[in-house]
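FORM 7B: Structural annotation worksheet

SECTION A. Query
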Amino acid sequence: MEDYRITVNTGRRSYYVEGSAVRKNAPGTEAEPRIRRVNHAARRNRDRARHMNAGYVLFLTIAVCITAITLLGYIRTQSQLTVSAKRVANLERELEDLRRTNDQNLDRINAAVNLEDIKQVAVNELGMTYAKEGQVVVVGSEGSDYVRQLRELQ
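SECTION B. Predicted structure
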């Protein structure tokens, strides 16, 4: 004789029935449908979960709209930040190019200036002379970068 094993579920517990005394269905017949008993509170909760009233649908729609608007604002802000970062990088590159050009021009000008030539032109062509004693006036400075002349010096 063959041994059979069947699982019986009573809602809260499952147990097995083993042995040769287990009923066998006759070939060609179907097993009886099992009637499952569900407690009243569980059925009520299941019915509530399936039922969506207009207020709940409206709440979910508003929540999705707020989430979508927030997400779009975040994406727009990120895009503006990326554009600003690229603009700053371009301006920094342009500033560096201008500094490099300025330094090159300053070096070229300094190399082109010959102080001896300037002295010869000033003395010979323009008639300038060195200052004599008494012509140089020393003015005290109080820490500022410039001096104001308030009266004519004698």
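SECTION C. Observations
The two ends are 142 Å apart (CA to CA). The beta strands are 4-9, 14-19.

SECTION D. Sign-off
Analyst initials: ____
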